[in-house]
Amino acid sequence: MMRSQNPEPSASSLNQGGSVVLATSPTMTGDAARRRGVLTMDGGIPASAKFQHAIEFGSGDALRNVIPLPPAEAALDDSGYSLHGTGPTAITCALGSPDAVLGEVTRLSPTVVWVAPREPQVDTSEARTFPVYLSFNGVTIGPLNAAFIRTDADMPHAPVGLQLVGVSVEQGREILGFLADALRRGIAEPAASALPVQDIIVDPERIRSIFSAICASGNKGVLRRQGRVVRMVLERFHASTGQLEWRTEESTPDWGDPAYDIDVIGYNSAYRMRAETGRGEGDRLFTTLPAQLFRIRHRWHRRVPAPEGIRARFHHPLWREQGLLRREVLDLSFSGLCVRCLPQDLMFPGLLPPLIELELGDGLMVSVRGEIRYVSGVRADGTVLCGLSVLPYSSDEARWVRFVSQTMSPATRTSEGLVDQLWDLFNRSGFFSLGGSSPEEFEELKLNFASLAKRAAEVPQLFCQAVWPSERGIEATLSFTKPYRHAWLGHQVAKRPGKPPPGVQEAGQIMRDIYLRTFEHPQSDPDFHWVIAYVEALNPWIAKAHVRYAERQMESGAGLAFTRKIQKMKAFSHELSGRDHREFEVGPATAGELSLLAATIARKFPTCYVESLDLTRDRLDMTPVTQKWKSFGMERERSILVARRHGIPYAAAVMELGQLGANLFRLLDNTRMFSLVEDGTRAYSALMDAARNWYLARRRPSFLYLREDEGGSYVQECGLHDGPDPYMWIISSKLVPDFLEHISELTIGRRGAHSR
Question: What pTM was computed for the model?
């Protein structure tokens, strides 16, 4: 066997801009990847919930016994690094003997080789393994055992894929040594991932708000000028002059002459500005507020430092002889980890550890499976940083979500055990008086609410009931629940009036923490597509934070947000309208009527309304949602009635039921009515009386009618009672990072200590 002369990665090995990111496979579809148990990704988060149950083992011992895994299960087909060397700078691949060169290698890892063949056609019909040799810079590795991966043999010069089989630790080290050398020579690069979302911000008030928030949060910035880098923070924003004052800890910074390119981190966005003018004074740099700001979205999930002592332990999927690796976790999010490893651990992008046990302290353990997404260069301390995308095993999902939520928002907690304090907060904040209600009306629900609060903490798949506690009680609360297949409902927001408690320096901190905790919670759900809420715009904070934001998004025309004023009207189940409904026959909707209803709703309402409320034809009955709630011992139901006249469907009522205590205003016990013909509202009173009987049969004394039209005479005919007129508010999950950036700007920007 001929071996590499430089098997050990050098100090700069795998170092290419600090990260290596796996690209989309050119040979494997998402379905094929899922069948093989691969973590398929979409924008940095798991693309399908199917994967959560694709590879489940009865025990950790059963899973460990399959290690080492076959290459087809240990790494992706497109693992490793992209190569673009040519001629003498290329890594070449030979079949059978070192002289039988097939062509130049275009992608390489210890499990897979992709080759651009020199000949137009390559016979890939060989089913058995055969010897393969890799050569680079006068050094040859081999023989390695390989088998063909299916390729398009009919296309001239089609790329040829080779699956490496039985690669030893030493051979893996040699291959990674080749890649380290190729990276140093500039002929290898991190495989390209999807470009981040970019936009240009030109609104002066928005730019001022962003820099006010960055200034108050103390986030890091980097100045780049003619190859030099100066790390700094935004010390002050002088609002009166529009001047930005930056500070560096470097003893003798070389600011040089402008122009400057400055990158700075916000809540979860990287911003770039161009400063055409500026001046340096010692450790300070003064620039003017830019006229435009470039934003680059860099994370779907916010990452935070891991608590001290968190360790990840796992076996290498290919080489069990490496032993049990126990490595420090540096930071985490709902879908990712950063782990400090050693170069000799032989980590590479695309590697799929099937079992990673996270030691969380106090004997708590969570099992996840992952995919290596990047490997840093060797650092000064001799370690490398490995970034992984991870998913918890279904048995540990609730424990993982609770742990990450608490780590990301340590000032908040879930509300179990604090029901009396929470009830007191609702009284103090005026929550029980919303819409003309009185505190006495809610007493009958207190027991149901307390019971659900205790259970909600154990079912993060459906609930997030967060509070911000202090020594004087609960300062604020906000809840999320999942009433639909792809949507989470934000509700029950309340804040203690008056000054914040001692120790809280900025007025917006409490609301910011609560919003981050609850709006980030659904991001752990791979089925999360929408957030819905019913918000009272009379509250200035709600109007600015929610309504104005959605209106601005609607103006873009992207279809990612929707808001409009509706009316929540109350109907008592025992209070029939007393009208004669003999001209209409009311009964369950037929299959044809369901199709008509879905088409009517789709024609009258925007897509985000239809999708978020499960009003598409395939989801009208909400069976998967009902089953999921029932699996946790909770009620969730939908029924659809149609009023017909002479066999012609006139109108439909969509009735929903939710677990008692899930919302204190019984928001999940709601009915919507849709006209199916021009004068379909004639049938509304018949439908409303039928709905009353439906709720009575389920022991609900009242329910809400959500009026989403202009109203009319039918309101009085139905015997409905006036109620508040909130805004219905819907945003796409794609906007949640931007919305939280917006919340951060509103809350952090309210502190004036760093602005002058």
Answer: 0.77
